[in-house]
Write a structure and sequence with these properties.
By secondary structure, the chain is mostly helical. It is about 50% helix and about 10% strand.
């Protein structure tokens, strides 16, 4: 939905396997049916870059349809698959993986052992590192249980741990500075000195408030 900048998930492509007497796979049947769970049916807001890429892809499909005699289907119809073969059929997972592997080779990414499904985990990790609400990430991924989102789709890198520790260290230092200022205030001090120390306390509290707002925005 280009107007509302969303992708609607309603159906899923799954494979059913048939085995021989020795337990080997002898046949695979691809089926378009219901999603894995009811939570998988959802509307996903998309970023501007994804939206623009999909628009460019649709234009490319239209040109391909006009110039390629092998294309026997209308690739830009509202009911067409977004990523389709020349005859209008859907691309299989294997076919999509072949394209992805070709992309990795062209861009020197083979050494990183990136799997196609790993992009979904990357998406999740980026949102976690932005301190997004786990329930929001759960809805975007279509998980039934938020535990799956947190435990399976979330990994923490060393830089993220260091940033968290640094924030904790800063808060501890601010607390210690505040205590030192409070201890310096004494009844024998002049009114001017008491006023000065109160202002110092107020400055520290204001810095803490601003840092808290900044952490929340992150």
């Amino acid at each position: 939905d280009f107007a509302n900048k969303t992708i609607k998930i309603e159906r899923a492509i799954t494979q059913t396997l048939k085995f021989d007497e020795q337990g080997n796979v002898k046949d695979r049947t691809t089926v378009i049916g219901d999603t894995k769970t009811a939570c998988s049916v959802r509307d996903i807001p998309v970023t501007d870059i994804v939206l623009e890429t999909l628009k460019q892809w649709k234009e490319k499909q239209g040109k391909r349809q006009e110039t390629n005699p092998n294309v026997t289907a209308i690739l830009t119809a509202p009911t067409s698959f977004v990523f389709a073969n020349d005859n209008g059929s859907y691309r299989t997972y294997y076919g999509t993986r072949v394209i992805f592997d070709r992309f990795k080779r062209r861009n020197g990414l083979n050494k990183y052992h990136i799997h196609f499904h790993g992009l979904r985990h990357t998406f999740s990790n980026m949102l976690f590192e932005m301190n997004e609400n786990p329930k929001v990430i759960q809805q975007l991924l279509g998980h039934r249980d938020v535990k799956t989102t947190i435990t399976v789709y979330n990994s923490v890198n060393s830089e993220y741990v260091r940033e968290t520790t640094d924030r904790l260290n800063t808060k501890i230092q601010e607390h210690e500075q505040e205590r030192e200022v409070e201890q310096e205030i004494d009844d024998d001090l002049s009114d001017e000195e008491i006023e000065r120390q109160i202002r110092e306390l107020e400055k520290l509290q204001e810095r803490k408030r601003r840092r808290k707002e900044k952490d929340f925005e992150m």
